[in-house]
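Hi Y.,

Following your request, here is the sequence exactly as I used it, all 396 residues.
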Amino acid sequence: MKRILLCAFPACVGLVAPTASAQSLQLPRTAALTSAATASLTSDAKESRADGDNQDDGAIPVTPVTGSRPLAVVGSIVPGVLLHGSGQWLLGRRKTAHRLLLAEAAGVGGVLGGLAGLAVTGASRYLVIPFAWATIAGVGLFGFSLIADIHATVLTDEQKGRAATLTAPVEVSVGYNHVYDPQFRYRNFFKHTATFRTGAWAFGPRLESAVDDKNYRLSADVAYRFVGPRPDVRSNSGSFVDAAVTATRHAYVSDGFAITTVEATARARLDLRDFDPHLSGGYVQLDPGLAVSSIRYDLPTDERELTDLLLMRMTYGIYLNRPTDVAGDEIALYYDHRHDGYAAGLKLTGLGSGVPGHFGTRARFWPLDDFGFSLEGEVGSALVGGLSLWYRERKQ
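Below is the corresponding structure, written out as tokens. Let me know if you'd prefer a different format.
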């Protein structure tokens, strides 16, 4: 499955070529080694005596730490901010350092190639999509390779979390959002979300409704999972590939207009231990997509305006514990390129004005197994903060 996911994950296309051998693309699980791989078995046996390596189910052998961790933590920032992988290099994990450096180079290449393509084509509407995606994904890959190095250097192998092996068939939440946007009257929102999964299919309605204004946002999506954990399929990896279609109705009743949007997205997550065992405990996810919106104004002429949207959401997440079945605690940082939500896009001046989307973070915890809570925050032209209470069913 790893080879499929690496090929399906857009940001990692540039990383596959440098590891062209079949051996470098396989997870080092000794149970899968044959008698023809005696040399690899011996090497893995030596590497499994790592500092803090875990021997629980699904554990991956790692290379022992040979350097000073405090020095490596400093090195992951300086000179790590420019030479990604410096922290792993100082820990003695040279192969991991090389991979992170290649990820950085691929990110820079994506940015330069995307910007060059936009400049040469004059940002033609027929070619802007692939070049814009390449630029945004390149920026994300550059940032994620830096964060991955710092994360993998600060924590020992035994402190790193792990992805869930299954997904919950039902997850439901209720919560509150506070939105500060000087352009609109609303501030306080009630929100409700739900996800229902059966086999490879998932259905998820979501409602956000202002309690101090006539404004609401209602959406529903249907997703299909090609690979990855499901309620009925256990996986040793958190990697997955989904395709989703979403319909959204955002009504600004007090302001006299409403937006109806239909979008198609891909959701590709790479559990970083599938990329390199020393980067376990984290994941990166890209959600590229396209949308078409109809804006209807409350006028006697029933005037409507059609517009298309380029979508891209990039996430770096950290698993905080090691769940035995469905998802455990995690925290994530993300960039979302869309401008039609409550956070909208960043307020900038000059050449970049109106282009960037918004940044956000979320953390979800399950202190009572089936009952949990989450905290969310977003920064764009508006500020959004929220708290939700969660319930889930574990068995289908």
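The first helix runs from residue 2 to 8.

Thanks again,
Q.
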